[in-house]
Specification:
The protein is about 5% helix and about 35% strand. It is mainly beta. The strands form eight sheets. Strands 14, 15, 16, 17 and 18 form a five-stranded antiparallel β-sheet that branches. Strands 23, 24, 27, 28 and 29 form a five-stranded antiparallel β-sheet that branches. Strands 1-32-31-30 form a four-stranded antiparallel β-sheet, with no helix packed on it. Strand 31 and strand 32 form a beta hairpin. Helix 2 packs antiparallel against helix 3. The longest helix is centred in the first third of the chain and has 15 residues. The N and C termini lie far apart (about 60 Å).
């Protein structure tokens, strides 16, 4: 067979160890074909490749069904809310209207925790968050009246409470998260308030305004709707409804992304999905809503060296509502709402856009995008020619379609960007929030219109690493 294909001559084919010196009396021709055949044979008789039991391909992909489904009637339908939170004690809390419940997943016992906004014109709780290891029995809550409260297990009244009636000078809160003793709150005016749970005097705020210098930026100008703390607890990422993402050095109380315009992290749609990588601390994943629908991964270690560009971009054309890094493998999970497609650009639009300077982008010149597909707003000082502005204004919005990413859960490989698993229609309606279990294996997702939260076994357990005692491998002679 080898001779008929012209791969070998009349010489006899022999297999030898690669470490043995070649026989000088043996004249072998067709070395490349010889090596190719030997590699093929080794692959044929070799054993199967070892599988990564932590990957989604060996877990959720083999059993794409929720392990727990909990009814949660009355969850807020606000896209910028986070109505569920998972504590370090394996308790999942969910806000149903004004009432907040939690279930101990170890015993499956459900408890009514508290009613949000007592004495206020509150209709529903928007976002909740358990305290971390330092305050594992405390739960913070933001209501639709703009106030926020902190409750502790066993206490019927809030231990901390701030609302517009008692503190009218404080803007309404839109988002929250914990970092040790600090409860971080995002405000409607773009400010960020750090409330020290131990002493009120230690609390402080940053951002919420802009400098007169056009090359600098002091913080967010619009509502802050997302937060994420890095593993060290020193850096905070925040996103707003205008698509701006800032990274704050809390120790210095300043924004690292606000020194120059070139250091800004920007999307062309609201950003609610933020997540720091567990196994590479300088990687930050950001995800945007309609009408952009992309995920970008940023290397924040490059902030001080000049212009920052995303290290990876996942173009999905689907609203990204949450992103979660796996702590145990190089995978990134995202949950989605609607899927959409962009209309083809007309000849007139292409001709108008071709007149723009090639070294600039329309968004970087100052135009912003309103929430949920709002029209493009020109900057206060026009920076574009009139013909380009009119062309952009006439650009049609993306069309919402029913596709494989509609209301889906997607797990991406990093850094290749390959979709390892896609679970279409994980809920019947948009998935507005998701949270990771304390062991980093499971994910809870929430769909307010479906009025359910679902538990998914996404990843496997990490290998048990037994730490050897010191000098275990040493011997005394």
């Amino acid at each position: 067979m080898y001779k008929s294909f012209g791969l070998l001559t009349n010489k006899r084919l022999t297999y030898k160890d690669e470490n043995t010196p070649p026989d000088p009396s043996y004249d072998r021709t067709g070395d490349s074909a010889y090596d190719l055949l030997r590699k093929s044979a080794s692959n044929l008789f070799g054993g199967p490749r070892s599988l990564n039991n932590r990957s989604v391909s060996q877990n959720l992909a083999t059993s794409p069904h929720p392990t727990v489904i909990l009814d949660s009637p009355g969850m807020t339908t606000s896209l910028y809310s986070t109505p569920l939170s998972w504590s370090v004690n394996n308790q999942i809390a969910v806000a149903c209207g004004r009432d907040v419940y939690f279930q101990d997943l170890s015993t499956r016992e459900t408890t009514r925790f508290f009613k949000a906004g007592r004495g206020q014109q509150t209709l529903e709780a928007l976002s909740i968050a358990w305290g971390g290891h330092k305050h594992e029995t405390k739960l913070a809550c933001i209501n639709d009246f703009g106030g926020w409260e902190v409750f502790e297990l066993g206490s019927k009244a809030p231990i901390h409470k701030v609302d517009g009636s008692t503190f009218p000078e404080i803007p309404d809160a839109k988002s929250l998260c914990w970092n040790g003793d600090l409860l971080t709150l995002g405000m409607t005016d773009g400010g960020i308030y750090f409330h020290d749970i131990r002493e009120e005097e230690r609390s402080f705020n940053v951002g919420g305004g802009s400098d007169t210098d056009t090359d600098t930026f002091a913080g967010h100008r619009k509502s802050v709707v997302s937060f994420a703390w890095d593993s060290s607890g020193n850096y905070l990422a925040s996103g707003d409804i205008d698509g701006n993402v800032h990274i704050w050095d809390v120790r210095a109380r300043k924004a690292l992304t606000g020194v120059k315009r070139s250091s800004k992290i920007r999307h062309q749609a609201p950003v609610k999905a933020l997540s720091w990588c567990h196994w590479k601390s300088d990687l930050l994943a950001t995800g945007s809503y309609y009408p952009e629908g992309i995920i970008q991964v940023w290397g924040t270690s490059k902030l001080s060296s000049g212009p920052i560009e995303p290290e990876k971009t996942f173009s999905l054309n689907s609203a990204v509502h949450s992103v979660i890094w796996s702590p145990h493998c190089k995978e990134l999970l995202s949950v989605h709402g609607v899927q959409f497609e962009h209309a083809p650009t007309t000849h007139r639009q292409r001709r108008s856009l071709s007149l723009l300077p090639s070294s600039t982008s329309v968004f970087r010149l100052g135009s912003t995008v309103q929430a949920a597909g709002g029209a493009l707003n020109p900057p206060a000082t026009p920076l574009l020619p009139d013909h380009s502005s009119s062309a952009l204004a006439k650009k049609s919005k993306p069309t919402i379609i029913a596709g494989p990413l509609t209301h889906s859960i997607v797990v991406h490989d990093y850094p290749s960007g390959k979709k390892l698993f896609t679970l279409s229609r994980a809920h019947r309606h948009s998935i507005t929030a998701a949270c990771l279990s304390p062991d980093g294996r499971d994910v809870f997702t929430a769909s307010p219109k479906e009025q359910t939260i679902k538990l998914w076994k996404v990843w496997g357990a990490p290998p048990n690493r037994v730490k050897e005692p010191p000098f275990e491998s040493c011997t005394i002679r």
